Amino acid sequence: MQLISYISSKTSYSEKSIQNTVELLNEDCTIPFIARYRKERTGNLDEVEIGEIVALKEAFETLEKRKKAILKALEEQEVLTAELQSKIENTQDLTTLEDIYLPYKKKRKTKAETAKNNGLEPLAKIIMSQKADDLDYIASKYINSAVENEEQVLEGARHIIAEWINERSDIRNLIRRELERFSTIVTKVVKTKKEDENAQKFKDYFDWSESLHRIPSHRLLAILRGEKEGIIRVKIEIDDDRVLEKIDRKLIKSNNECGAEIQLAIDDAYKRLLLPSLTTEAMNIAKEKADEAAITVFKNNLEQLLLGAPLGEKRILAIDPGFRTGCKVVCLSEHGELLYNTAIYPNAPQNNITESAYTIEHLIKEYHIEAISIGNGTASRETERFIKNIPATKNLEVFVVNEAGASIYSASKIARDEFPKEDVTVRGAVSIGRRLADPLAELVKIDPKSIGVGQYQHDVDQNQLKKSLDTVVEHCVNKVGVNINTASASLLSYVSGIGPKLAENIVTHRNQHGVFKTRDDIKKVARLGGKAFEQSAGFLRIKQGDNPLDNSSVHPESYSLVKKMAKDLQLKTEDLIGNTKQLKEIQLSKYVTSEFGLLTLKDIVKELEKPGLDPREKAKAFSFSEEVKTITDLKVGMVLPGIVNNITNFGCFVDIGIKESGLVHVSNLSDTYVEDINKIVRLQQQVQVKVLEIDIARKRIQLSMKKGG
């Protein structure tokens, strides 16, 4: 099968693994389901590897679709030969395919087409043969009403030759190789924009040049943003003379008049046709690579944020801090339900500290509050100090929570549907509290681009970004598992096999009929058929249900197998769960069948040891330095506590408790060489940093995490 061979040629996976994975995908199985429950069929491929097969499958289908369109066009033009058809059918990449099609592609009227219409193609062929002498005499035979002298005739012939040169794939590939290896990206400031306030962000690129092959993705995206905003001009340069010399050697075989004409045609083809087209192509390829790198950074950050440490089912008092408009306060139940909301004014200009403290003390007692969550926006530090000075909070953990995206959520349809009677300030405070209890459950309600952990997210390919981020969210949701009796429709929609419509149907069914007692009850949800149940059941949890296996990642298709294991040990199923001693005595080879192999059996036993275990760490409280309140309080050499709030390819940004985050450049991350930043730091990690540089004018802070500073 062509598809399997295509994927196999681009990966190291066995053809059997690829074949089985493709079959499962064609059966509408999801990536999380295949990775978790079909390990024997895929050869234990993980989600990333299955995702690669999905991407290659899509690329192959795109290639085949384009081939069909080209073959149809060539048939209509009556130029399709058996040799050309074979060449097209055997092509394995789009660039080569488009090069093959280029000579036949319908173009808007060109200089070459005009010359052909003027009857000059035979002369162009004579010149390309490089055997003729006395070209002026030969050219005189082609003079007509459209081309009135030998000079115009020869110029027209050169236009035809230039087009032929442009359409030669070997010439195009020669220039591509030169661009790939030796091209330079050059930027210059637009003089009229040099003094603009916005232009200062791009000051580094007012006069810049760098290898296009080596330029880091973040720098290329910054340059392209500067170009888009009209601040700088960008062009790609290579050594034209060297490239032209290589083309000359390929095409010029004689030292006569024909050779001279071909030389002129080469120069024309290079400057007018080849270079503009192929430098654009090279820039597009560089942009695609930069997009891919930026999206990868965003994906890594998003995954770490979504899998951030949850506090768990606790009663939380959440505060959206502010100055003039006060602090919005909400009290949430252990299930995230809104119990009460009010506003306090402990900060300037009101400074109503006594009454505000009394209100907080009363709410803590009234609603049995177990933890406090404060947003990290405006007035966060002031509000945190106020809260920690209240005697009633001494035995409570106080958390400062990243509130990025809370305002987006509070104005969204999801928030309006959840709290139709509350205003945006209440909804925002609820979000701040809920993201402490369970970051994943709350953050899935917000467009990932608004969570504040990406770079250049508005500059990269938006379709590719959305697709990639949706895959990350799906992976995280299914890795953790979802309590079907408490989950929102937003969270449920990312469960394998569910989607938005079925998620709404699940919530509607839950509201009408009460909680689900067993996984089998899920089949009663409207429009949730056998395939959706198969794909989703293992990722949906039912706590305190009728069957203890329903609160685990053991799939219902394996329940009879677990029952047999328990029976063989003379135990009830519920007595086997968590019974590490007995589980270790099971001889898994006894239970291997054509349906269940050792990989699946090992997963089942591992889950039975600790059913429903949340793979995430637990949330820890954190305090910023009381010495530093604004950037002007910083001094070089200070060592401060901080929280990693963004990771890039060139370092990480650390929140040190002021408005501006500081940058720890990759060179200051560790005393040893850093190959992968994500192996040194992770999002929301609590770190100690040393202040290296402070640029108050540009609001930039350089930090170090090296032990020696």
Automatic annotation (TrEMBL):
Pfam families: HHH_3 (PF12836), HHH_9 (PF17674), S1 (PF00575), Tex_central_region (PF22706), Tex_N (PF09371), Tex_YqgF (PF16921). InterPro entries: HHH_9, NA-bd_OB-fold, Ribos_protein_bS1-like, RNaseH-like_sf, RuvA_2-like, S1_domain, S1_Tex, Tex-like_central_region. GO terms for biological process: nucleobase-containing compound metabolic process; translation. GO terms for molecular function: mRNA binding; structural constituent of ribosome. The keyword NAD does not apply. PROSITE patterns: S1 (PS50126). Keywords: Coiled coil. Residues 637-706 form the S1 motif domain. One of its GO terms (cellular component) is cytoplasm. Residues 53-94 form a coiled coil. PANTHER family: 30S RIBOSOMAL PROTEIN S1, S1 RNA-BINDING DOMAIN-CONTAINING PROTEIN 1. This is S1 motif domain-containing protein. It comes from Tenacibaculum skagerrakense. The lineage of its organism: Bacteria, Pseudomonadati, Bacteroidota, Flavobacteriia, Flavobacteriales.
